[in-house]
């Protein structure tokens, strides 16, 4: 039991951004605060431990034994996961002109995980971009590196003050939109991230490439293991890509760019693997023939469309 005067002294010595992060948990769960502190301040080191650990687990646990180790393979996805979002829906998040607090029952329907599903954004115009920790782990990463966005408080200010190794910088809402558009043109996917140690809520949008993204890698590993009930790291967007076969010329751009290997060219026409498609919107946006469109698909969940939930983006963004 820590005396109150010591607690007050410790809290009084904290920077404002640190106190904001601390207040997500308080003294009742100081372990989660320490987890959150290390995670944001040293995200590059965190990823360099996390991803190799998962790879070792996957490599050395025999396939016949993996069901018995289900809880270990599920530990990360249960607590640290993402929702795939098309570019237009991602733009709505980073251009909000009001705080966002989606009711828990709606958040649960949109983000279908047992924990870390609350869609809450305080000060949505506070956005900090920093180097992608997943790309930093690679020897020859995709460029640019500075593409991961902490959105809202206390996360943005804490990253700006503490995540110095990842070159954090504050950006405007319009600059955030332009960065996402640049990444999307490269075939990179916008993922909204949620984590238990960060208040069981949304905190970031990552512009993820299939070459380097740890979230996409974890998702592929846990889906490929063959559990009786598949574990997910990424939740689909709520959309499914559909091909206009008469319009499609079979050029292969969609197949080359798909981060989820869900598009194949067969008999000179693009074919969508409905089970693998995450509805990210890359293939319709990059298709030179406008032969692919996203369509809402209730079997793929509910889109994270804040405007549809009653939250308005800035008119000038």
Short description:
The protein is built from 13 helices and 13 strands. It has 317 residues and is of the alpha+beta class.
What does this molecule look like?
This protein has 317 residues and is α+β, with helices and mostly antiparallel strands. It has 2 domains: 38-224, no CATH class; 238-300, 2-Layer Sandwich (Alpha-Beta Plaits), CATH 3.30.70.20. It contains 13 helices and 13 strands. A hairpin with a 5-residue loop joins strand 7 and strand 8. Helix 2 packs across helix 9 and helix 6 (87-94) packs antiparallel against helix 10.
Mean pLDDT: 92
Largest sheet: 7 strands, mixed
Number of structural domains: 2
Q: Which percent range describes the beta-strand content?
A: 15-25%
Spatial order of strands in the largest sheet: 6-4-5-8-7-1-9
Helix content: 25-40%
- How many β strands by DSSP? 13
**What sort of overall outline do the alpha carbons produce when their principal axes are compared?**
globular
N→C terminal distance: 49 Å
Order of helices and strands: HHHHHEHEHEEHEHEHEEHEEHEEHE
Low-confidence stretches: none
Tally of DSSP helical segments: 13
């Amino acid at each position: 039991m820590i005396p109150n005067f010591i607690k007050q002294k410790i809290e009084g010595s904290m920077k404002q951004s640190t106190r904001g992060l601390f207040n997500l948990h308080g003294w009742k769960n100081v372990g989660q605060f320490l987890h959150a502190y290390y995670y944001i301040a040293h995200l590059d080191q965190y990823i360099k431990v996390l991803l190799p650990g998962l790879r070792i687990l996957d490599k050395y646990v025999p396939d016949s034994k993996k069901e018995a180790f289900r809880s270990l393979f599920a530990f990360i996805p249960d607590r640290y996961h993402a929702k795939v979002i098309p570019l237009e829906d991602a733009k709505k998040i980073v251009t909000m002109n009001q705080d966002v607090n989606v009711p828990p029952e709606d958040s649960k329907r949109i983000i279908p995980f047992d924990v870390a599903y609350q869609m809450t954004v305080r000060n949505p115009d506070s956005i900090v971009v920093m180097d992608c920790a997943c790309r930093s782990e690679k020897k020859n990463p995709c460029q640019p590196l500075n593409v991961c966005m902490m959105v809202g408080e206390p996360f943005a200010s804490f990253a700006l003050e503490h995540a110095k190794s990842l070159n954090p910088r504050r950006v405007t809402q319009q600059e955030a939109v332009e960065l996402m558009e640049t990444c999307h043109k490269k075939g990179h996917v916008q993922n909204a991230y949620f984590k238990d140690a960060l208040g069981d809520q949304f905190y970031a949008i990552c512009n993820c490439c299939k070459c380097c993204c740890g979230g996409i890698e974890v998702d592929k590993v846990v889906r490929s293991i063959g559990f009786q009930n598949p574990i997910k790291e990424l939740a689909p967007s709520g959309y499914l890509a559909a091909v206009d076969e008469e319009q499609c010329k079979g050029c292969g751009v969609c197949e080359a760019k798909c981060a989820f290997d869900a598009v194949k060219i067969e008999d000179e026409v693009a074919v969508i693997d409905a089970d693998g498609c995450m509805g990210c919107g890359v293939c319709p946006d990059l298709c030179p023939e406008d032969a692919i469109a996203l369509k809402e698909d209730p079997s793929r969940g509910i889109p994270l469309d804040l405007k549809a939930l009653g939250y308005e983006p800035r008119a000038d963004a």
